[in-house]
Amino acid sequence: MAEVRIEGLRKDFGKATAVDELTLTVRDREFLTLVGPSGCGKSTTLRMICGLERATSGQIYFDDQAVGHLPANKRDIAMVFQSYALYPHRTVEQNIGFALKMMRVPRKTIDGKVHAAAKALGILDLLDRKPRELSGGQRQRVALGRAIVRDAGAYLLDEPLSNLDAQLRVHMRAEIKRLHAEVARTFIYVTHDQVEAMTMSDRIAVLSDGRLQQCGTPEEIYERPANRFVAAFMGSPPMNFLSGARRFGVSVPDDAEVGIRPEHVRISPTFVDGYVPGRVFVAELLGADVLVTVDVGDELIKARVPAPFDAGVDSTVYVGIDPAKIHMFAAADGRALPRGA
Ligand SMILES: Nc1ncnc2c1ncn2[C@@H]1O[C@H](COP(=O)(O)OP(=O)(O)OP(=O)(O)O)[C@@H](O)[C@H]1O
Question: Which segments constitute the ABC transporter domain (predicted)?
């Protein structure tokens, strides 16, 4: 059991504030991802949760027990880092069981746990190998195995996939999600990759400049971003922000900015009422879809449309947006405005 509750957490490094009054509850057995651009305070938050960094102020609770004063080894937590730092001269089996050996856990118990972890991770046949005899993805699994044998209440993962190539990352993403379902423990995951956050998490906490911008399910974050920052950061390809939305027949208050996701932009080779003419700037094949960038005179608009897309570069097309799908943000502070306001 581990609910992790963070209240008014703050970390200053000299005059700079890395984490600013963060309040957040990670539910028992939840997969929560902290996501945000480089330097937004994700790792510092994780390091405070696990006890590697002391908070300037605020408190962290594990199931109602304040843990802020406890050293890392007294917190019921296991951590997986970006650099998996395996012991090069030990076998996979010894690497996974090392922490338990240090804790003087009986040999038989260690064997049982190491085998259960290796089975869950699909590396049973690699137990006798040394790290240099493994691929990057296999090493990453060993690092995960080292954490899961610890049997902690909460697992903290700091960008564990960032050293892997794109294909392996996609594969390991699914494996970690599966592992979470299997071990049924609290996972707190840190990444700057919004696709990882969207695909793996029960809930996502989006940070910018040390401040929590929004916390919600992937659907909530994607469909109802709380502000312009979240709308722009989450989603690939990113949301369009239109300066001339009125041309598309959208009624917009003076002090608002309109956003529309590429999948809600329509393109027609012939004129359609309410559509705006433009020139194809570039078309990029994504697989089943094509990402088409259209120059409508004073701005570029990206549309994600089903393949094939036949119009060539510089040809004239007509661009329309679905008014029911627009997002509106206050020009002054970027906060989301109700649709149709
Ligand atoms: N030990 C430190 N001393 C001084 N400043 C620090 C220290 N650790 C982090 N910072 C600063 O605090 C801010 C947040 O850093 P943090 O590592 O938490 O960001 P992050 O979101 O994890 O970024 P990244 O994705 O690049 O790892 C950054 O501006 C960073 O430079």
Answer: 4-234
